[in-house]
Design a protein that fits this description.
Length: 239
């Protein structure tokens, strides 16, 4: 099975501490995958200072605005000043709990790109949509709304995260991952020439990571829960 260079992104969500950052300070995977850790905003400085320099630092969200009277918001340019290189955009928790629409997600991705950050734009279907055989339709709709208008010369990453797989221990079977990733790749190729990396996310862990990353068109993983344990995350980064 082919297993090339992958992107492994850690989404710490609203978890983590200075202690956890320190635990990762001697993190030393053997494989040369691209590793991105996305801690909460308050840990970005410590992450930059304490994590090994090969680890890129990502944020979990940014405002679509650049500055102004938006209490509680953080702009992409502010993140860039903190040496952040990547930002998660449109994670399903942002879409469902914070009512982010595809249009808002597109604007956030644009704001990130304007500040020279690489957005990791998340898409994925609910269990209800999957059961109604609407997965590919939902992905098309989300890509049309949140991705397709990005300038084709810009750099970005797409993360396919079936919502029913996030934090549940459930994952799609190999054929399902193959089908969705091929579909996303084909859909993106209508607007973009370059190979956009397409990550898989949702209950990825140390046991299933090699199998998932060996599936065609899977460019890497977006890992939630398992990224908070450095032994598990090390195994994932070595897959
Ligand atoms: P999980 O989360 O790996 O804990 O399922 C993934 C994510 O929400 O990005």
């Amino acid at each position: 099975m082919k297993n090339n260079h992958k992107i492994i992104a850690a989404n710490w969500k609203m978890n983590g501490s200075e202690e956890l950052i320190k635990e990762f300070s001697k993190f030393a995977p053997e494989k040369h995958n691209d590793i991105i850790i996305c801690p909460p905003f308050t840990l970005l400085d410590s992450a930059k200072t304490l994590l090994p320099s090969f680890i890129k630092i990502g944020a979990q969200n940014c405002s679509e605005k650049n500055n102004g009277p938006f209490t509680g918001e953080i702009s992409a340019s502010m993140l860039q000043e903190k040496s952040v290189t990547h930002v998660l955009i449109g994670h399903s928790e942002r879409r469902t709990l914070f009512n982010e629409t595809d249009d808002v997600i597109y604007k956030k991705a644009e704001a990130a790109i304007c500040s020279k950050l690489t957005p990791i734009i998340c898409i994925g279907e609910t269990l209800l949509e999957k059961k109604a055989n609407k997965t590919l339709q939902v992905l098309d709709y989300q890509i049309d709304g949140s991705v397709a208008k990005i300038n084709p010369h810009e750099k970005f990453i797409v993360a396919y995260e079936p919502i029913w797989a996030i934090g549940t221990g459930l994952i799609p079977n190999e054929n399902e991952i193959k089908e969705t990733h091929l579909h996303i790749k084909t859909k993106l190729s209508q607007n973009f020439n370059t190979d956009i990396p397409i990550l898989y996310g949702g209950s990825a862990n140390a046991e299933n990571c090699s199998q998932i990353t060996s599936i065609k068109n899977v460019g890497g993983l977006l890992v939630g829960g398992a990224s908070l344990n450095q032994h598990d995350f090390l195994a994932i980064c070595n897959c």
